[in-house]
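FAQ

Q: What does a record look like?
A: Structure on top, sequence underneath. For example:
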């Protein structure tokens, strides 16, 4: 079962429980059994699943709950908390800081995705303002340097390596020294892998580590091994002072849930997950937002980070304002789709929007997801302003739905389905806190928003931005954040 499916199954089990007229022991037991089945299918260890179930049962003692308590909410919260606990090793990892040289060494078995991940890690930090460089100390696999060179060139990241030198320690030291002198602040050392855990691999790792004195050793592990992750992570942790783990190949893999929970059980912090072969297929792993996204509850802070990473400055404010508005209209959904298409990778971003789960656009099915968004947008193109901006659920009557279907060339059922999806998402948004810290609600911003919204000829008639400013001042411009 892929992770998006796992999230979908758990969310469905919770929804079914929420829709029951009375929440009694049977409803709770059915809900928990469904959740446990989904976890087992995602290859989570039996012991872990059993503990999750026992803990939820302990927290949610229906008999002891006072009359009038919201049992549904207590059950939902207990499930979310248990999923978080299952994935949380409770230990933060070292994070590189700017303004000083940071050396990070990557270790892992052959084929785990180590070399690809080094480049993803470098690229991620460059977007955060670091100056990264790559050193290829993998002398075991012929072609390793070529691969790193290719990846680094594609990502435009400086690299160091040798076709002739066979001593990985010598290359690692030369590369680190060179980049230190050149004032790079994040020096990433890629080391050799082996087909299996063996003494020679661990000895080489130890030597490279001793010579380069890394601030952090990252163990890269293939997520498709599922529960076996526990033993592998444990072995690497004991043999090299591994400070963090990156789990790769989490894209649509059946065993991803098992790998993540198994690594967490070794008390090693997972810091990123790899979700595809390409450089942007890389996500920060933080337990709370991850669980929220898994269950379709979104990850607003992750979304805001992505917007800041990928979107030009002059467009950031506009989308942040919209996100902070609180009322989720169809127009907002439309604009979000428009903006997200520009800043991709779409699957990752969509799941950060509250109300969407990873199933909306599944990894590997981006084309289908894109087509779905396009279909939604075509239907919305056939709506009137009142429909796009409306908040009255009764507005969308049958004749309007028929008209939208005719106008967009889609079937009536498709329009109904899209509106149902929208209502579901809007319901989630209603419960969200407003993004106050991202709202710089001053008069200038209000002015910009109004000037964006009115037709250009009207703005000219008002005397441009200055005229608009004057007019608002006369009307007593307000600051909505106070
Ligand atoms: N689907 C998917 N493939 C990945 C991911 N990360 C890496 N890969 C692929 O996995 C394969 C192995 O990756 P490498 O980076 O060569 O692995 P490595 O661990 O450096 O291998 P050695 O250098 O031999 O030790 C390549 O085909 C990568 O494109 C991921 O997150 N998802």
């Amino acid at each position: 079962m892929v992770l998006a499916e796992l999230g979908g199954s758990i969310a469905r089990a919770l929804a079914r429980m929420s829709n029951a007229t009375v929440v009694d022991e049977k409803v709770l037991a059915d809900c928990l059994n469904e959740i446990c089945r989904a976890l087992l299918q995602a290859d989570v260890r039996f012991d872990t699943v059993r503990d999750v179930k026992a803990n939820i049962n302990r927290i949610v003692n229906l008999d002891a709950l006072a009359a009038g308590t919201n049992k549904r909410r207590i059950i939902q919260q207990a499930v979310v908390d248990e999923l978080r606990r299952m994935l949380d090793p409770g230990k933060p990892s070292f994070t590189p800081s700017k303004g000083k040289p940071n050396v990070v060494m990557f270790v892992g078995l052959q084929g785990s995705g180590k070399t690809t991940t080094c480049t993803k890690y470098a690229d991620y930090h460059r977007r955060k303002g670091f100056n990264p460089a790559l050193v290829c100390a993998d002398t075991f696999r012929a072609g390793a340097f070529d691969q790193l060179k290719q990846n680094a060139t594609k990502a435009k990241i400086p690299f160091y390596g040798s076709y002739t030198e066979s001593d990985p320690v010598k290359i690692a030291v030369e590369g680190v020294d060179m980049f230190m002198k050149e004032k790079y602040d994040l020096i990433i050392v890629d080391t050799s892998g082996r087909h299996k855990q063996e003494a020679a691999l661990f000895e080489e790792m130890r030597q490279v580590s001793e010579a380069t004195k890394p601030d952090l050793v990252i163990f890269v592990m293939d997520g498709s091994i599922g529960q076996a992750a526990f033993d592998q992570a444990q072995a690497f942790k004991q043999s090299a002072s591994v400070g963090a783990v990156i789990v790769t190949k989490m894209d649509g893999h059946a065993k991803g849930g098992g790998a993540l929970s198994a690594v967490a059980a070794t008390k090693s912090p997972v810091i990123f997950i790899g979700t595809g072969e390409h450089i942007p297929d890389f996500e920060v792993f933080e337990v709370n937002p991850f669980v929220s996204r898994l269950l379709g509850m979104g990850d607003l802070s992750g979304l805001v980070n992505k917007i800041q990473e990928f979107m030009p400055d002059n467009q950031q404010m506009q989308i942040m304002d919209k996100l902070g508005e609180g009322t989720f209209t169809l127009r907002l959904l439309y604009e979000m789709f428009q903006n997200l298409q520009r800043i991709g990778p779409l699957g990752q971003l969509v799941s950060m929007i509250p109300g969407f789960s990873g199933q909306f656009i599944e990894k590997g099915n981006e084309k289908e997801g894109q087509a779905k968004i396009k279909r939604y947008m075509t239907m919305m193109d056939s709506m009137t302003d009142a429909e796009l901006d409306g908040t009255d659920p009764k507005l969308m009557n049958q004749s309007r739905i028929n008209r939208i279907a005719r106008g967009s060339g889609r079937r009536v059922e498709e329009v109904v389905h899209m509106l149902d999806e929208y209502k579901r998402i809007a319901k989630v948004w209603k419960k969200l806190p407003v993004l106050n810290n991202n709202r710089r609600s001053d008069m200038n911003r209000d002015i910009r928003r109004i000037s964006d919204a009115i037709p250009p000829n009207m703005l000219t008639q008002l005397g441009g931005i200055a005229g608009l400013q004057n007019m608002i001042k006369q009307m007593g411009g307000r600051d909505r954040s106070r």
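Q: Is there anything notable about this one?
A: The pocket of guanosine-5'-triphosphate is lined by residues 108, 110-116, 138, 141, 144, 147, 193, 248-249, 251, 274-277, 281 (CB under 6 Å).
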